[in-house]
Amino acid sequence: MTFRQALALPRTNLVVAGVLIMLLGNFMFALNDAMGKWLVASYSVGQVLFVRSVGAFIVLAPMIARQGIAPLVRIEKPWLQALRVLLATADTAFFYAAVIYLPLADVMTFYMAAPIYIAALSHIFLGEKVGWRRWLAIAIGFCGVVIALRPSSSSLSLSSLFAVIGSVSFAVSMILGRRLRGTSDTALVTWQTVGALIMGFLLALGDWRPASGVDWSAMLLLGAVSGSAHMLITRALKLAPASTLAPFQYTLLLWSVVFGIVFFGDVPDKQLFVGSAIIILAGLFIFHRQKVVDGGSKPETVPRNVN
Asked: Residue ranges of the EamA domain (predicted)?
């Protein structure tokens, strides 16, 4: 079914289609994360980032060919575009650095706090008014992050800090995406992928390792899977309201727990579950309040970028 045919369906069917596509996109993102964790156990973050970015162009190439090169060159606010690319690249690099030593569910918990960071930072960078209810939810959400972070001298790790820094980088890049909403999705993802390609190349210069054909294929597939997942989430947001889809983004955490247990034997502890529950409830409340404040208009959702 084409996108135009989908739009001809009744409104209820469109929402159902959007939810199903959102669930599929989140599954693919979680699969991408599990593949990335497996690969960075044997290869450097830079090497995985570089080859994965090459693989992403398998998905991007037809889209670039369809719209032409001109929209990629004539972009609004070049300096903000460059900053967004830098932060999005940092998000991906720190994510891979974190999952080298941390379970998938742990890292994903920090990334699930992105709506909380965005709500707080939007007040600073976008001048958006945030009422006391959302500030309270933001504070509670941060408490959830602290609980999941386990900030004791014996448990706080560099990998945990990588995950937090990566998730904050992701949140700021999303805010910049709002400022650059006039730029096409293809242009945003293309330049983001180019940034990751360059960063991966630089990081891999001193630690490039020979790989088997299977591993090379897996690294290329990593980019194709993440690129496809990003496009699925984008399509879902065109079929159903963001406020309807927002709760389903937390299935990423569920899949991360499942993949972590099945493929890596990582069983989350009670403290992580408590922190995750607090973060999810705070994030859902923030989405709800945004919808109320906007009078029912679509609030900003927070799909994962191409990690």
From this structure: 17-149, 160-286
